[in-house]
Amino acid sequence: MEAPRERLWTLGVESLGTGEILSALLGSACRGSGAVADLGHELLRSFGSLEAIARCPHEQLLRIPGMGRNKAAALKAAFEIARRLSVEARANSPILDSPESVARLLRGDWATLEAERFVVLILTTRRRLIRIEPVSQGLLDSVLVHPREVFRPAIAWNAHAVILAHNHPGGDPNPSEADIRATRDLVRAGQLLRIEILDHVILGRSIEGRPKDYCSLRELGYFYS
Question: Which pTM does this prediction carry?
Answer without folding.
Answer: 0.63
